[in-house]
Amino acid sequence: MYKKILAAVNEHINSEISARYALNLAKACKAKLYICFIAEKDASPSSIEMAENAVKRLFMQAREMDIKVESIAETGNPLKEIEKIVKHEGIDIAFAATRREDIEKRFYAGTFARRLSLNLPCSVALVRVVHMGRLHPHKILVPLKGGVGYIKERAHFIAKMAEAFGSKVFVFHATKPITKFFHGEIHITPIEWEKRLPENIADFMKHLKRHKIEYEGKLLPGAVARSITIEAASKRHDLIIMGASERSLLISILKGNPVEAVLREAPCDMIIFKPHHENK
User: Fold this and answer.
1) DSSP class of residue 30?
2) At what angle do helices 45-64 and 13-29 cross, to 10 degrees?
3) 135 three-class SS
4) Measured distance CA(16)–CA(12) in Å, rounded
5) Is the torsion defined by CA of 228, 111, 21, 278 positive or negative?
6) SS3 assignment, position 62
């Protein structure tokens, strides 16, 4: 599914770490890796030098891992130039690091990451780096909600990430507590929760199983974002892979957004994944 993978790099160390996730995925998929650096017109010489050095390090590591690799350097608007590269090279998935604005502002209120996710005609993996020195995740937490789409590609992406690092995958579904009028919350057994598993999540588990990676599933009633962060922290997960929300901007503003909440509070690295290849 992924034959051409793009990693966008700049002068910040988190972008280089994000690119290393792309590098390892390229190895697992036997794909070609494109490392790009887009220098903005007002970029300082020191910033350009740091980014160029990062590209060189990544390029050399790819060569050492026997990965086909190409570096691309351009000047201009990063969003527009990355979009041009994706279209020209036929990129299947692009990796980029989230920026500080994605944490401090509303993620779905016009940030660079949001625009990148919307504009690129390929799958997108936005990486929030929390632990600079923990690049080989042993435990990957995958929160899923009912109604999730792109089942095959989600399973493929997660399975290949797990394969790349020899990780175990933990599929996590936070369900709403069951309540009855005047009686408060009703507690039911794990087996009963299992029967309430949405059909699309059960389908996802079947696709994941075909990839022959180690995984397990868990259902837990409670608030989605809080349940995810508590699960990640208490079980010491190394990476969260969460789908980009499909909520409208208005709904996100009025009701909040689980992705935004987890992005702010994630105790480990996090990938916000937006799939594109539904039937490939």
Assistant:
1) T
2) 20
3) coil
4) 7
5) positive
6) helix
pLDDT, mean of residues 204-223 = 80
Fold of 131-270: Rossmann fold (3.40.50)
Q: In whole angstroms, what is the distance from residue 260 CA to residue 265 CA?
A: 9
First to last CA, the chain: 7
Separation CA 213–CA 97 (nearest Å): 26
pLDDT, one tens digit per residue, over 167-186 is 999 988 766 554 554 444 44
166: left (phi over 0), alpha (psi -120 to 50) or beta: left
Given a cut of 60, is residue 240 above it in pLDDT? yes
**Rounded Cα–Cα distance for residues 205 and 215 (Å):** 9
- Residue 71 to residues 7, 33, 85, 135, 233, Cα–Cα distance (Å): 10, 8, 11, 22, 37
How far is Cα 108 from Cα 117, in angstroms, rounded to an integer? Answer: 10
Bridge partners of 59? Answer: none
Distance of alpha carbon 85 from alpha carbon 72, whole angstroms = 9
What average pLDDT does the chain have? 82
φ, ψ of residue 205 in degrees (nearest 5): -60, -35
Per-residue model confidence as pLDDT tens digits over 63-90: 999 999 999 999 999 999 999 999 999 9
Contacts of 270 by beta carbon, 8 Å cutoff, 6+ apart? 127, 128, 130, 239, 240, 241, 242, 262, 263
Question: Which residue carries 């020209």 as its tokens?
Answer: 88
For 88-115, what is each residue's pLDDT tens digit?
999 999 999 986 654 455 544 456 777 8
Residue with tokens 């089942």: 151
